[in-house]
Amino acid sequence: MLKRYGFHKASIIAGFIMLSFTVQASDLTQRQSQLEAIQQQISSQQSALKDTSSQHEKLIKLLKKDEQAIANAAKKVNNTKASLATTDKQLAALESRRVTLDKLKKIQQQTLSNQLASAYLAGNHDYTKMLLNQQSPATIERLLAYYQYLNKARIDSINKLQQTITELDSVEAEQKQKQIRLNQLVLEQQLQAKNLTQEQAQRQQTLTQLQRTLNSHGAKLEQLQIEEASLKRVVEQALKAMKDSPVMEGLSRQHKLNWPTQGRIRSGFGSQRSGEVKWKGVIVAAPEGQSVSAIAPGKVIYADWLRGFGMVMVVDHGKGYMSLYGHAQTLLKNAGDTVDKGETIALVGRSGGQTEPGLYFEVRHKGQAIDPALYCKR
Question: What InterPro entries does the record point to (predicted)?
């Protein structure tokens, strides 16, 4: 009965997973059709700069959809990995408990067997005959106390054995349920990984077409200026949001912090991007999917997609200090959430139209960008 119930439950969940995957596939197909339509328009209107600019904006919006879809898929994969790890630990703990209970059961069975053998060897005693044979009351009293002790010991052993058997059955039943859940998670992870791969392929197609529209140095510089303006607006919004944040300790140069993720600095603070546009943060080269941690306790005041920077999170640390994390594959916290120092808040990615994975990281004080190396350990 338990097996039939578990199989039926697993079938229902698998059905929901397949339905969700079908909906995602439909959205992906729609975005692929949009990309093909834009490509055709660009091909027929390549000579018209105005039209090309219009198609560029459409591609930016499509890139946003693609990268948001990747973020959703990556978050599901990350959550499923965490669930798999938790379930594995639970199964290991249950197996350890099962082994312990099985050993205890065998010991209790042996103890009870020895007690029954002792009772058999002692034989049956007719207490009336003992009285008629005029055995001393003290002897009779000692014998009665001894037999009562043996009887109580047997009853206690039987009760303990029954409790052990009941708990052992419960542990084995829970093991079966956890194994069913583990199998469901593995199936879910396979579907999510497939969906993530498809979304990444769609995003690459959009990005390739987008890069073709930026066919001049001037066009690239203009886009960087637009992205800078977008970031400035986000910082201004964050400054307003910081007024409502609880009192926090801020950041200190005296107590160096860990970098949000491990990797080499690919672009340093203040280095030139293009023209007069300079980096207001650093790019840390790191593998896609690597965890990104909050550098200090704080409150998330922004978590969304931002043009040129992709999936971005801004954390308020108090006293006018904030840290910004960009180009993430996915964000694991939402605006309004509080975070602890070292807590995983995002995963390294290449969102915002990046071709290489890495983390864009800023530290600001009262809106002004500061070299993160002043606060983080070298």
Answer: Cell_wall_metabolism_enzyme (IPR050570), Dup_hybrid_motif (IPR011055), M23ase_b-sheet_dom (IPR016047)
